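Researcher: Dear colleague, please comment on this protein.
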Amino acid sequence: MTHAIGLTPAQIGKIAERIDRPVVLVGLMGVGKSTVGRRLAAMLQTDFVDVDDEIERAADRTVSEIFDAHGEAYFRDGERRVIARLMDEAHGVIATGGGAFVDLETRALIVERAIAVWLDCDIDTLVERTARRDNRPLLQQGNPREILTELKDKRGAAYAEAQIHVVTDDGPHAQTAQRILEAIDTWL
């Protein structure tokens, strides 16, 4: 499916006026939630917040350190509270960590109170993008390609519950943000 590239500022403004809740980006690590999220927020003339950054700021520790010290269940509980707070604060675009939407309670919260956008891409792209950073706790436990493939298989059904699904590629982030806006416009 091809998309018209280049929504006008007026078209973007009309879409923005119809968005009455936060846009929450979900998907595997490396799909571009933070990068595309910043671009999307700029286009919508709203703010952007990254859940992992907020967690690290509140805990004064990295996500990896929290995982190591307390485990995933503890982390997911705190993550859910942070996401709920950010939605209460009416932030415009929120990027979640890769596992947030897999948690049943967090997923229900997001679907009920936000527009969930599943950003998705192929494994080769994920492997290439995630290799750029070494702060991904789940990828430090073995072969990144195998781990990402397993995560994609395991989490796909949960991600599919998002109201909107956009496939990203190596194109410009602005192009992906435009595709998200077009999908939100159609969904609304």
Remarks:
- The mean pLDDT is 89.
- The beta strands are 23-26, 48-50, 93-95, 115-120, 164-167.
- The two ends are 19 Å apart (CA to CA).
